[in-house]
Amino acid sequence: METKGFTQDGTVDLRGYEAFERMAFYGIASNLVNYLTTQLHEDTVSSVRNVNSWSGSVWITPILGAYIADTYLGRFWTFTVSSLIYVMGMIMLTTAVSLKSLKPTCTNGICNRASTSQVAFFYISLYTIALGAGGTKPNISTFGADQFDDFNPHEKELKVSFFNWWMFSSFLGALFATLGLVYIQENLGWGLGYGVPTVGLLVSLVVFYLGTPIYRHKVRKTKSPARDLIQVPVTAFKNRKLQLPQNPCQLHEHEPQYYINSGKRQVHYTPIFRFLDKAAVKDGNSGRPPCTVTQVEGTKLVLGMMLIWLVTLVPSTIWAQINTLFVKQGTTMDRSLGSSFEIPAASLGSFVTLSMLISVPMYDRYFVPFMRRKTGNPRGITLLQRLGIGFVIQVIAIAIAYAVEVRRMHVIRVHQITGPKQIVPMNIFWLLPQYVLLGIADVFNAIGLLEFFYDQSPEDMQSLGTTFFTSGIGIGNFLNSFLVTIVDKLTDRGEHKSWIGDNLNDSHLDYYYGFLLVISTLNLGAFIWASSKYVYKRETKEVNEGCIEMESKALEISPLGLQV
C-alpha cells in the first residue's frame, strides 16, 4: 500500500543522496607507503605494516558507524556527523605535511628522523580520517540503494545496476588519485598533493547537501535491529531440550496480515542452522513468547554471510599488495618514459582503476543481458557465481605477479645488482598484467561483495550488513600486516635473507608471492565449499492492497550457490 510521502518498501522522500567522493581516501592510500619511507624514514616492513594498519582501521570502523546508523541516528545523520570528522582529519593531515615544524628537517640532502611529536600528529591525523570513514563508508552506499523502491518494478530493475555504477563513480576518484595526485605529491609537494583532495572532499559534500530536499530515507521499523542476533541464540539455548516439530509450519510466526500492517518483510523458513529453530518452538509452559521464524531466519542469514565473509579475507589480503609491496617493487624497476619523465611507482595503480572503469560498463551492458538470456536470472549470474569468477581471476593475477618477480630476480642475478637504490634494467610495465587483472577481478568480487551483503542482510540491518564488505577489506589489511611481520621475522635469521627486506634487490619477494599464491588457491577451494552450503534469502512482500507474493531470491541456485 502506498501512502503520501512513502514508497511501498518503506522509504520516505525527505532529504538527499549523492555519491560521496572518495578521491581523498585514494589520494592518501595509493602513495602512503612512499611518504612513510621517504619522508618519515621508516623501514620497508614498518611502513607496510603501518599502511596496512591504517587501511585496516579505515575499513573496520564502519562496523561502529553502521551500528549507530541502524540503531540510533539513521544513515543520513550518521554520514553527516562522520563526514565532518573526515574533513577535520584531512585538514590536519594536509597541515602535517605542509608546515616545516611538523616535518623532519633536512641538511645537505640528509634528513633527520621524525620527532615523536611529528610522528604522533601525523598518525593522529590519519586515524581521525579512519574514524570519519567509519560513518561514511557503510552508510553512503546503502543510503544510495535506499533511493530505489523494491516494490516498484522499474526501480527494482534499476537497482540491479546501482552498485555497478556506484563503484564506477568511486573508481573515477581512485583514477584521479593514482594518476594526478601521486604525481603532484612526488613532484610538486605533499602539501599540495593532500590539499587538493581536501578541497575536493569539501566540494563533494556541498554538492551532496544541495540534493537534500529530494532524497528518500528508509524508516527504521525496529528500535534495536541487532538485538535478534543475541536473542535468537539465547532463546534457542534455553529451548535446547524441546523437540522440534516435524513440520516447520508449526514454528511460531506472525500472521501475514501483521507484516502487511507493519510494513515489515517476512523471511521464510530455510533448512540450515537448524539448531536455531528451537528459538521459534512454541512452548505453552514458558512465560515469554518464542522468537518468530522471521527473527530466526534473520540470524541464520547473518551466520551464512559470516561463512562467506571468512573466505573473502585472503582475497582482501591480495588486494592489500597494490598499495604496499607492488609499489615498493615498482620503485626498483626502470620507470623512465622518454628521456625526462619518470613514472611514479604508485601511479601504476591507475591501471587497476582503468581496467575497472572499462570493465564495469561492459559487465553491466553486455555480460549481464547476455547471461540473463541464458539463465533467466535478473542479474545474469548469481551473486556467489560473480564472486567465484572474481576470485579465480585474482588467483591468476597473483600467479603472474609471482612469475614476474621470479623474472626480476633473474635479471638482478644476471646484472649482479646488490644495492637497494640500484635500478633493475627491467621496465615497470612488466607489472601491468597483475594490476589489470586485479582491476577486472574487482568488478566481480568487490562490487559483488558489496551487493551480496546489502542484498542478503536482514531488512533493518543493511548498513550493518554492508560492514561485512568493509570489515573484510580491513581484516585483509591487518592479515597482510601480520603475514609481512611474521614472514620477515621467520626468514631473517642467521645468514638467510629476509623475504621482505629493506633492500628488495637482495630479498626473496618471489617466495612471499608464491606463498600468497598457495593460500589463495586453497582459499578458492574453501569458497566453493562455503558457497555450496549457502541458501539465499526468501522474503514475502506486500503488493496490490494486501496480496503477497514470494521474492525470487530463492531461485538463485547454482553450482556456486547451491540450496541444500
From TrEMBL:
It is found in: Membrane. Pfam families: PTR2. Gene3D superfamilies: MFS general substrate transporter like domains. It comes from the Eukaryota. Its main location: membrane. GO terms for cellular component: membrane. It is a multi-pass membrane protein. Belongs to the major facilitator superfamily. Proton-dependent oligopeptide transporter (POT/PTR) (TC 2.A.17) family. This is Protein NRT1/PTR FAMILY 5.1-like.
